[in-house]
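Check out a protein:
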Amino acid sequence: MNVRILRTGVDPQVQREDRVAVEAPLEYMLHHPALGIEPVSFGTTMRTPGDDEYLAAGLLYGEGLVNTAGDIEAIESSTRRPNVVNVRLNPNVQMEMQMATRRFSAGSSCGVCGTTGLDAAIARAAATRVAETGQIELDLLLRLPDLMRAGQSKFGDTGGIHAAALFDFSGTLITIAEDVGRHNAVDKLVGENLLAGRLPLRDNIILLSGRASFELVQKTLRTGVAVLAAIGAPSSLAVNLAIASNLTLVGFLRQKHCNVYSGPQRLRPAHAWRGEG
């Protein structure tokens, strides 16, 4: 969105136009026979408009309401209400009424806001065990932030957008999602891969433009991804969960260095660092 600003500082003040990332609410409406004739609201979140279908699919997958693309019969944004997305679930999907009828209001920076069963969510995530995989070159991992940045279409326009990118172990960028919310970006990424039939993922890397919180580790574990890397810092709960789940967790990823908090066996050091050149 274009806004008028006053640019001020040590140089003379000047009025100019700036572009800011759009943040708007999105309500998720669930349709399922167990819920009755009328749809039921699953909650509202703040997000950057665009890819709302992916966002809804990724959120429902992360929450455990759906497990495959076939669990979703149809998903579409409302033509009458621009900030509503309707999800029609397969009648064979088993609905937990407490979860299906929960209501939350989440900010764009929120992951498990409104979740009443946080202890249960932690227990489920901690029970996940990432399968052993091959290794990736550390040099390759260090190059990924530049590749993600080059693929971001919205960040350069506003400077206020988070990104989540999916790479394979050869460093190929598979897809990237952007949103004003960190968790929304991951949900959009997961939703796209769910609806494309790519889940579960195995020899893949998810790269985050910000920090790695517990919720983002939890969402990553649901996908089967083995390596989660972040430009920013992880939280203590994220580190503990990654260790318990055999997930490779990397933080402070830069061009020349990074911090490896768990799963270092998946990273192959550069030859020079091993004293081989």
Observations:
- The two ends are 51 Å apart (CA to CA).
- The chain has two domains: 24-116, 136-274.
